[in-house]
Amino acid sequence: MPFSSPLSPDPSQDPSADPTPGDDHDLAAEGTRPAGTGDARVALSVLATIDPVLRDSAVFGLVVGTPRVVALRHDIHAADGALRRVVVDATGVIEDETVPLEHACLSCAVREDAVPTLRRLAEDDRWDHVVLALPVAAESLPVVRALAAQSTPGNELQRLRLATAVCVVDLDTLEHDLLDDDGVDGRGVGLTEDDQRAVGEVLAAQLEHADLVVTTGEPSDAPTGSTLVDRVRGTDSLRLDGLHALTAGHLARRTHDPVAGERRAHPLGVRGPLRHRLRVPGDRSWTIELRSSRPFDPERLLRRIEDLGTGRVRARGVFHVANRPDSLCAWDGAGGQLCIGTLGTWQDATDDIGLPVEPRTRIVVVGATDTDGDDDERGRILAAFRDVLATPDELADGGLRWLGRTDVLAPWLGARSDAV
Fold it and tell me: What superfamily in CATH does domain 25-269 come from?
């Protein structure tokens, strides 16, 4: 596989270990530090949200009073096969056009409109910072990946420098948005006519990839939502509380590292439990890290997959299965939905300094205890995890016991001959 990221050390032998919340970067401590990028190109920041009000408020705050900042806002109208493009700066709306798309999807919007429009804005001497406000419920990773490729020398966006991937979230609704089963279609923010994604899936992906997470609402009024942000966002990301405090300078002074962004979003690089911080009164959030060098037994995994993989949780990581020892498998769950699949082979997996990654199971589950204190969900997950692991006795014959059996996971992981 082309990229893998390092795994954090095992804090204990207890898969339920949840150390005290940990050291996190706060933009308040670093926000005045000069960028020192030495790059004179026009800065390009990418803004992602699940809420149109948050997105428009962020755009307004970034351009008002900052004459050299321009924002490009996209909205996809899938039913009409069209894209609405709005360009705005401190003087007001400069462009408001609806353009047809070959396919009404995010990749077409980037390729057909975002790239040529960003190039045009970068060539205009009025601005030295462009903010791309993505369609509501769009994930930033695929967009930033495409823009990073286009901003290299000789490509269409070579005059632009990727500055910051920023995500804006509402602490008051974050627990519900992340953990409950609302769908983007039900909220009217689906990117396609058949968009079946859960809101939690989108929000988690935005948080995990962001360089900077900006919150609205008071952390003390939503302690569970506030700590859930820290449990999900990347360990090297920054956090800024208060949308009113966000300035274009916060975004422009940084330079996005595409490799680090990919690492944060990769199942091998999922954040573990928080550490070294006192628990906040009223915070009901938790993290459990399920890890073992032993693989899953495929039949028991299928039998208990709902116990292990569904509920009010965000779960992400990697696993291996006893009857396909070479396959590096991904685990991705949110909003009551679970997706499993293959990422390649363990033989090809390396950490960020090129060292091999040994086959293992490591799934990080984030959730929140019910307001009445009921913790059945965490207990159910732990019991299911212990049950689906292959036992030492089952592994003693080197996997021969699984030869010739029906591969019950083939509908999700593919035929074993295709899994490597």
Answer: P-loop containing nucleotide triphosphate hydrolases (3.40.50.300)
| pTM score above 0.70 | yes
First to last CA, the chain: 10
Domain with CATH 3.40.50.300 in the chain: 25-269
E-assigned strands of 8-148? 25-26, 42-48, 69-77, 82-89, 92-100, 129-133
Question: Are the C-beta atoms of residues 64 and 88 closer than 8 Å to each other?
Answer: no
- Average pLDDT of the chain? 89
Lookup result for tokens 């036992």: 391
Asked whether the predicted pLDDT for residue 1 surpasses 50, the reply is: no
Q: Which DSSP letter does residue 111 get?
A: I
Rounded alpha-carbon distances, angstroms, from residue 249 to 41, 70, 72, 88: 15, 13, 17, 18
State which amino acid sits at residue 103: H
Q: What is the DSSP letter of 35?
A: -
CATH 3.30.1220.10 boundaries in the chain: 285-418
Report the CATH fold assignment for 285-418: Hypothetical Protein Yjia; Chain: A;domain 2 (3.30.1220)
**Distance (Å, rounded) from C-alpha 346 to C-alpha 302?**
22
Sign of the Cα torsion 89, 93, 95, 101 reads positive
- Residue 174: which residues within 8 A CB-CB, separation 6 or more? 203, 222, 225, 226, 228, 229
Report pLDDT for 21: 37
What pairs with residue 344 in β-bridges?
328
| 404: Cβ contacts below 8 Å, ≥ 6 apart | none
What pLDDT sits at residue 7? 30
Cβ atoms within 10 A of the Cβ of 272, count?
23
